[in-house]
Amino acid sequence: xxxxxxxxxxxxxxxxxxxxxxxxxxxxxxxxxxxxxxxxxxxxxxxxxxxxxxxxxxxxxxxxxxxxxxxxxxxxxxxxxxxxxxxxxxxxxxxxxxxxxxxxxxxxxxxxxxxxxxxxxxxxxxxxxxxxxxxxxxxxxxxxxxxxxxxxxxxxxxxxxxxxxxxxxxxxxxx
Length: 175
What we know:
Helices cover 27% and strands 27% of the residues. With 175 residues, the chain is α+β, with helices and mostly antiparallel strands. It has one domain (6-174): Alpha-Beta Plaits (2-Layer Sandwich), CATH 3.30.70.560. Strands 1, 2, 3, 4, 5 and 8 form a 6-stranded antiparallel beta sheet that branches. Strands 6-7 form a two-stranded antiparallel sheet. The termini are far apart.
């Protein structure tokens, strides 16, 4: 008899960020949600759209970002694989880091646990290693989950937001 991983049978609460700064950004985000739901993901909550400057080049098109709370029985490695397929399906190409893209999906938090995994198409670190520094992640995450706590830092999201640089507060707007 093959022993199954417990997470295969349980619904796992996961937070994803979705961003786009190429083409019809709103449609790209909606298409991302559609494809996620076609792949064993149930979206429980979605934040508003937040607009931010591209980084590091502010001359690139502005980003639209959302954070979604999902429930899935997929293991982190399988979810990561599906995410990479969706990004490719929506036109994301391998280019320079931080270059404009139609779709960028990051796993922010998976069940409040810490993961370091390797897949064919990259390394997966959960929670996302830079989420605590990103206004375009923290603001929408706070909107949908005010009691969220960073799995490694054990810091409440309110406290992470307060620690952001002042510029992070005026360089983001809710749409």
